[in-house]
Amino acid sequence: xxxxxxxxxxxxxxxxxxxxxxxxxxxxxxxxxxxxxxxxxxxxxxxxxxxxxxxxxxxxxxxxxxxxxxxxxxxxxxxxxxxxxxxxxxxxxxxxxxxxxxxxxxxxxxxxxxxxxxxxxxxxxxxxxxxxxxxxxxxxxxxxxxxxxxxxxxxxxxxxxxxxxxxxxxxxxxxxxxxxxxxxxxxxxxxxxxxxxxxxxxxxxxxxxxxxxxxxxxxxxxxxxxxxxxxxxxxxxxxxxxxxxxxxxxxxxxxxxxxxxxxxxxxxxxxxxxxxxxxxxxxxxxxxxxxxxxxxxxxxxxxxxxxxxxxxxxxxx
Length: 317
Fold this sequence. Notes:
Blueprint: H1 2-17, E1 25-29, E2 36-42, E3 53-60, E4 63-72, E5 78-83, E6 93-95, E7 103-107, E8 122-123, E9 134-150, E10 160-174, E11 179-184, E12 189-199, E13 202-211, E14 217-225, E15 230-237, E16 240-242, E17 245-246, E18 251-255, E19 264-269, E20 274-279, E21 286-290, E22 297-305, E23 308-316
Parallel strand pairs: 7-12, 17-23
Antiparallel strand pairs: 1-2, 2-3, 3-4, 4-5, 6-9, 8-9, 9-10, 10-11, 12-13, 13-14, 14-15, 16-18, 18-21, 19-20, 19-22, 22-23
C-alpha cells in the first residue's frame, strides 16, 4: 500500500509541475489516515503563489463525520489540513456539504487546458487576495430543510449526514472558519447550479435559479470585487444554452422562455464580430444550429427581446 501511495503522489507531482490551470481528479490515499479520497487540482490562478495545488477530502477512520480538506503543494508537501464546517446553522439557513452543489470552474483565458472535473470547492484568491484558503458550501433554507442522519450498518453510530430541502445560496468560509462571503437568492427563489469563471483578471459566477411558485427559470451573472469580497449583478437572462462547451461538429440548442418575443439570435466572437445569425419563429421554444463557423474560444449568443439584449456565453474548442 505504501509503495502505491508513493507512486500516486509521484504521478500527482509530475502533473502539478505541468498543470498550468489544468483541473482533474485522481484517486489517492492520504498517508496519515489511510482514508481513500479523490485529489483535485486547484488552478494556479486561484492560488496566492500562482502555482497549482492538490487538495482532497479525507474522513477520520474512527468517525466518518469528522472531515478535513488536505492541501499539497507542487512538491507534494502537505501544507494545510482544514476542518470542514458543514451542518452549522445560522438564523435562517443551514450549511450543507462541500459537494452539495454543481459548481464548475473555467478560466476563459486558458480554455485549452480545461477538463471535465473542474469542480470548485476550495481556492485562495477567487473571493479575495489573502493567503487563507476559502471553502465553498451550499446554503439551505432553514424553514424548509432538515439535517438527515444515516446509520448504514446498524451499529448505532451515525455514518453520514446530509441536508435535505431547498437550496438558497452558498457561503464561503476561510480556513479558520471566518465568513468571507455569503450569497442568497431572493425570497421565493431556489438555487440550481453555480458556475464560477475567470475572464481576464476578473472573477465571476453565474447561477441558475427558479421561482418557487411558477418554477420559472432565470440565469444571473455576478462580478466579484475581491478588494471588498462583494458582488455586482452584471446580467440576468431567461434562456439556456446546451452545450456551453462545444466542438465545431456539435449542434447548439438554445431553450427560450415560453412567452419569448425573440425573432433572431446572433453569435459574436471575442473580437466583436458577428459569426452567425439564426432566425427564430414566433413561439419556437427550442432553436438549434451548428457550431461550424463559430470562432474558437469565447462566443456570445445574443437574443434581443423587447429592447433588451439577453446573452449567454459558449466556448468552442
